[in-house]
């Protein structure tokens, strides 16, 4: 029995050695895996850090570009706004100038029309008066009156011709000024 017990103890001892060897091997495998995972984790962390740094750099470049572009756009908007204000001011000045020219020309035209009306009314009244005188003095004065009337008609005709030429000149001046204002615009 001793041999059986010895053999049994020997078997248990070998079995225990094998278990011990297996546990040592597992421990080394676990340590190796742990070291491998630590190396991989460190490597991955380094790569992630580099990628984050690269992305931060790219983000800073994009940010810088966006801010510079925004500044340029704001500058252009301010410039365009100033141009619109300048254009509005120039337009207002031009409109005021045109209005004053139109008012001046209308005033001048009204004066010419008033002068024509005054001349015509005065001429008609003179003709009525002379016509009455003619009826009263139809004798000897008839020939003189006809001569005088012809002279007056000639004068009126000349005055009307003169007024027509002045009106034509005024209209031409008016048209030239309108053309000049249009060309200036």
Summed up, the domain count is 1
Mean pLDDT: 85
Terminal CA distance reads 132 Å
Which spans of ≥5 residues are poorly predicted at pLDDT below 50? none
Helix content: over 70%
Rounded to the nearest angstrom, the radius of gyration is 59 Å
Notes on the protein architecture:
It is built from 2 helices and no strands. By secondary structure, it is mainly α. The protein has one domain. Helix 1 (2-136) runs antiparallel to helix 2 (141-184). The model has no long low-confidence stretch (mean pLDDT 85).
Describe how the helices and strands are arranged.
Elements: H1 2-136, H2 141-184
Helix pairs in contact: 1-2
Brief synopsis:
With 185 residues, this protein is mainly α. It contains two helices and no strands. It has one domain (2-184).
Provide tags for this entry.
rod-shaped, 185 residues, mainly alpha, 2 helices
